[in-house]
Amino acid sequence: MNQISPAQTDITPEPGPHHPDLRLVNANPDFWYPVAWSADLKRDKTLAVSYAGTPIVLVRPDEGSVFALYDRCPHRQVPLSKGTVNGQTVRCCYHGWAFGRSGRCIDVPYLGKGKLPNGVRTFPVREAGGLIFVFPGDPEKADSTPFPKLAQTDNPKYKTKHFSPRVNCHYTFMHENLMDMNHQFLHRRQMGQIKARFLGQDKGEDFIEARYSFMRCAGQQPLAERLIFGKHKDLQGKEQPVEEVVTIRTEYPYQTLRITDKDGDLIMDLWAAYVPLDKDERVTQSFGLLSILRPQTPFLIDVIWPALGWFTNRIFLEDKEIVELEQAAWNEAGYDRNVEIFPVVKALRELLIRCGIPQDMPPATAEKQPAPPTPAEPATSA
After folding, report:
1. pTM of this prediction?
2. Superfamily name and number for 158-358
3. How is the chain split into domains, by residue range?
4. Which tens digits make up the pLDDT trace of 165-215?
5. How far apart are CA 178 and CA 214, in angstroms?
6. C-alpha of 356 from chain center
7. CATH code given to domain 29-146
8. Share of the chain above pLDDT 90, in %
C-alpha cells in the first residue's frame, strides 16, 4: 500500500505576495472600537486600556463626558492613568503636570504659564450600550465613520447580557470560529448532536453573511435552548424542518449573530467586537452584547438568566480553547498552514485581508502623530 508523503498532504502554500498571511494582518484602526464597560469607569477616576499596543487612559470627570488621552506623560513617560482627576483635567502622579481633555498641557506647577510644553494625543470617544468606544485611527475620519448598531440594548422587549472574555489569539481566529457553524461537533457535550445546514450567503466590499439552520441528530435540547426557542419535537429520525434561521455577519470590523423564528421574528441578537491589545495583535479582548427576546410570561427571563449565562459560558470556554490551540499551531509553524475548503470562510478571509492593515504597513502610532499645540485652555480648569 502506497503511503502519502507529508509533501502531498501539505497543500497550503507558504504566504507570499499572492498568499498573504491572515495572521499578520492588523486590525484597521479607522473604526470605533470598544475598550471598556461604562460601569468600570467611575466619576473623577481614570482607567487604563489599550488598543494594539497603544496605551490609552480614559477619564471621567465629575461633570461632562468621558475623554481619552495617550496614557503617558510626555515628561517621564509615567502612565497618566496613575494620576488624579481635577475638574476637566488629569494630573500626572509624578510631578503634577496637568492635561485637559484637548490633550494640552495646562499646568506645570514649577513653571510659568509661558513655558508650558506640548501635550499628548487625544482619541475621539463615544459612549453607548454600556460601552466606551474610542477611535484609535485618523481622528479626522471619526465623524464620518458609521457607528455600529449594538444589538437590542435600547429595546425594552429584550434583555441584554454583557460579556468580555480575553483570548490569547489573533482576532481573525474569532471571526472564523463564529462564521463557520460546521464546528458544532466541538459543542456536542453542551448541545447534543446537531448538524448545521447551510442556507446561503451574501457578500459585499465590507461584509460577508452566512445563514444556517440546525437539525438535531441525537441528544436532548439543553434547558437554556429550550426555554428560549421552545421545545423541538422528537421526529424519531426524520429530518427536522427549518424552525430557526441563524444569520452570522462580519461587517468589518464587527460581527453579529441573529436568530429568527420561522415567521421571521427576531429571537436573539448578538453583537461582538474583537479588540487587539498587544502590538503583535495576538491577544484579543472581546466585547459582546447578547440580547434575548423576553418571553410572554412576566419575569421568566429573569428566572432562566443564570442558566443562560452558564450555558453560553460553557460554549465560549470550548471556543476559547480551540482558537488558542490554533494560535499555538501558527506560532509553532511560523506561518498560516490552514487548509480551508468552506467557501464562506474563504470569502471571510479575503474580506479580513482586504479591510485590514498588513504588518509591513503599520498604522500611525501616538509617537508619530504631531502633539497638540501649546495650550489655550485656562489653568483654572485644573
Report:
1. 0.85
2. Naphthalene 1,2-dioxygenase Alpha Subunit; Chain A, domain 1 (3.90.380.10)
3. 29-146, 158-358
4. 999 999 999 999 999 988 777 666 666 667 778 999 999 999 999 999 877
5. 15
6. 14
7. 2.102.10.10
8. 63
